[in-house]
Amino acid sequence: MGLFSNKKTPSPDPPPLRRNLVRNLLKLGMTWYGGDPDGDDFEANRDRYYRARAKCTKAEIDYVEDALERHGYPP
Question: Around Cβ 27, how many Cβ atoms within 10 Å?
Fold first, then answer.
C-alpha cells in the first residue's frame, strides 16, 4: 500500500492503558445520550458521565467522544 492510498483505515483501538475506564465512560455516554432504561433522570446520568470523564486522559476522552459520534450520539 502506497503512502497516499485511498484505502480507508479502520478506527483506532482504544488507548492500551485503563481499558475499563474507557469502556465505562463509553457506556455512561450512551446511557446519558440515549436515555436510561432504569428511568434515572438526565442530570444524574450527566453527572455520572462527567465524574467518570474526570478520571480519563485526553486521549481516552477523545476516543470515547469519537466513538459516540460515529454511532450517532450527539457530541
Answer: 14
pLDDT tens by residue, 21-75: 889 999 998 888 777 666 668 888 889 999 999 999 898 899 999 998 888 887 5
Amino acid making up residue 59: A
> 34: domain range?
19-70
What is the per-residue pLDDT for 53? 93
Domain count, the chain: 1
Measured distance CA(34)–CA(55) in Å, rounded: 22
Amino acid at site 72: G
Angle (nearest 5°) at CA 55 between 51 and 59: 120
Report the Cα 52 to chain-centroid distance in Å.
11
